[in-house]
């Protein structure tokens, strides 16, 4: 039997009951799979908990689903819209661009091409396997080329141009270094002679490769029997202003172009101004042609915009200050934001379907796939909403940390644990990266999308580098506990909160976060604040929340953007001047750096992380105040809270948050409980480290701890924060019969009732009799 | 245990001055690159680089062979007219034999057919051309086409068994063909009076110039042109489509067949075309001497030719020419030595065969390999596994921080080795995760920060609820899966953690 593989994804992720969604599935080694709609109750198979729990749900989804292999186009590129084939075989022509290659050599890369790789027809300006700028042409019989004399220096800006005289077949290749004090990896002190000007008479003239071969940025067109047309020769690096002129430009005109970058006089066919289209709220995927024909190019797999250009002078550190210095568009040969598969199934979910986390379960004799999605209530009725961290799920989607991150084992403090399925998936290298990974040229990945199979949202998945469930599979522990407790709840997702703001929360008396609400947009923060101000009650039960400034482009919720910079536990660091989100125009990085530390909203914020073991909480003196003592009903004064759990054996751990007035914790917040005894594998986070000195680990630094805080807001609102990822994972311990559950039940019983909260009358000063 | 005494290290100063011809062009200059007409080939294979030490722009000749060819053949062309009559004759003979050997190299090297019928083809074509001229009155300018035609036909016949018979048998067969030719010609009655020779053949050298200086010079220039033509044929067949096809096929025969490259057909084509060229040379040979005799088929002549290509090195045109030059100089230039010449040729041939892997032209590459091998042996002797970087190695490492890391790594390992005690191992076994003693923490942190290639991981085998564990090692390369280190199965995760720890301790102590 051939190896069987099933991979799939749902679009959109979040729907209301009664709405429609599509499933895109690819099957290898099989023609049909068994399909079943299931409700996901618990993911973690840890024997200390209930194990994997799902409920089969009747639906109109057919029991058998026909599938075939679907192919994925990996790599970012752009396609020029050229209906009249003006870019086909231009006779005499000159093609030019500003480029900054990040990975010259090894494989052939096309920067600007109307080139059919399969037929060897057309023309292209690109980089040879030896790392030299090369202009190549072909007529289907023979390929000929002219190459620059010296290889391109990686991460340095150049102006490059090639002209071709159709009558004499003389080709002129020009390469001019435009490195300044700011724009490149190296500066003016390096005595490179970047330039090269080569003239050669070629043996062929380019033939028109035909309509099927588009004019491409950062790739060239290719075809094979199974996949049909696709894009190969993918380019890694930046391309700034580029164009094509229907004449052989004189050398001095080319030299002038290298200095100005503005559209040359003459028979311009296209001049793409990569700086056109910026607004205060970012830029889209269209590369604007300001030439006479408007042959705009459309980016595929999100070429990264908002990046510094060839003329960046360092003073403007955002495209919002001077778009003209932000013409750099970054292409990655392994970018993927949309698999663009054909849907195998488009269904409308029943209007009476209970809100919850669902999945389409696909099975064959040799393979299994779960495609999770989220169903909200058509009309909210329950008093409690669970906010599923879909932004976080995207951020971690298909992370490669165990395989590629040198420091992953040092962070997690143990050896990664892989499964055969993990290895098979990683071997494919087909379904893109997470925002924790680096592209093949070493730069960080800032986009993550749900329009692709995602291994680590499968409900039973355990994150290899940590050996435990992470994000959605871990969050299901809270869902199981709510089901088990018989509480009436509905779910929401980050995406709903982002799209609808406080309106999404308003129907609910209480909203509870999941384990790791790390990625937040401004809409989401605003909505949470507004909800609390309006009397809403928030239980922030997670670690490292409200951390990264993240965004979505309007109308494209599937793809999230984040730029990691300056501070924080960051898998990568954006290059100087590239810290602003292209999708919203705002500065990314930590919310804390923008005046919105999480402490300001929920009382606690990120302080340490470790993946070796978790600790219990211990009650702090404030927990005996009558304002909150009711939360601890049934829990002894010195009882350890959560000295157990599926998250490394404790309720306080993995990623932990603490109270800090200096970071904006509300002054009336009570510190109810804290954890002690974390190991040195929990070092204080980098954003807290101003001077580096020894002893910032859990055994020596008092800031390494998880806190439980509580404060009230206007209109009977309140916020209880439990700063620990492991908290929810302690809930299912002993079939839910434990003091973490007890505490949660006490809080929820009160939070879900309207009106004044218990203990709120205790506002007087203590009489000092004792 | 006393620390093992390391021999004192020797640090050699490294660095050289520039040792080859290098142009220093300016990036603003326009470089007009000329091409050999009708090809995509440049006249000279220049290669532009930035010197890694100075970053100065340099233009170096990647392939210096065109230079050597020009110097060698140009020198011969310019010098020969000033030589003695005898030397001019030797130069001409050198050119003719070189031409034969260059074509023979195509047959043996490019086509990979070990044929010894070379002189048979040359001789038969020569006889045919001579006969056509003397008996049929064909004018001398048409003799070379006649020879080529006969060569083609002979080549066609000889090619047939080449795909059926394996190397040695085919070589013997072709050796037999030469003898058959000799016997055949000697049996021709018409030639009996002249002892099997044909004399008084017309030639491009006027009859009254024969053995005169102008005649000798004309003979030399013609032979020189013949050599150039042979080299052109070699180039066209070896480096154009047919030769490239065969090159690809030699590298991976199965792949070539799978992709539909007709390897056998290409070999035969090379053989037949080369035979045609040999036929033309045969006709030239007759014209040069104005006669042909049975000596052309003699075994000693063939063996002399064989010595030439063995000394020069099989498969390359420069080998054929250099070998010919040496043997012709000995054989024709040292006539005074008499029979001793043959012994000298033999001695040279044996000497080259014993010391060089592929004739004189292969000596350079052989020397480089030898030097590289010595280099790595010496380095291996002077450095320990995972030890610090020697100055001569450092020149080859672009990222100098790696040099420091290696040194740091060596020192930290030396310190950590002393920390490994049975108690430390027992501590880890008791509790693989969580807070450890300072010593164990340091050892573990070192392990965790290791490079990705061969870094250990754990494989969970089977369903989570009933799983066992194996130890893996990462490849460190995207898309390349980790390998299983051994087949041992561990019942619990803690046992697997500890197994990884023990492996890493082992690696540490072994380094
Ligand atoms: Fe995180």
Describe the structure.
- The complex is a heterodimer of chains A (770) and B (511).
- By secondary structure, chain A is mostly beta strands.
- Helices cover 12% and strands 32% of the residues of chain A.
- Chain A contains twelve helices and 43 strands.
- Chain A has a 16-stranded antiparallel sheet that branches.
- In chain A, a hairpin with a 7-residue loop joins β21 and β22.
- In chain A, α7 crosses α9.
- Chain A is elongated.
- Chain B is mainly α and 511 residues long.
- Chain B folds into four domains: 63 residues, no CATH class; 230 residues, no CATH class; 85 residues, no CATH class; 91 residues, Double Stranded RNA Binding Domain, CATH 3.30.160.
- Chain B is 58% helix and 6% strand.
- Chain B has 18 helices and seven strands.
- In chain B, the strands form two sheets. Chain B has a three-stranded antiparallel sheet with strand order 1-4-3, with no helix packed on it. Chain B has a three-stranded antiparallel sheet with strand order 5-6-7.
- In chain B, a hairpin with a 6-residue loop joins β3 and β4.
- The longest helix of chain B has 27 residues.
- The mean pLDDT of chain B is 86.
- Classes of the chains: A mainly beta (770), B mainly alpha (511).
- Chains A and B meet through β15, α3, β29 and α5 of A and β2, β3, α17, β5 and α18 of B.
- Bound molecules: fe (ii) ion (FE2).
- Fe (ii) ion binds next to loops of chain A.
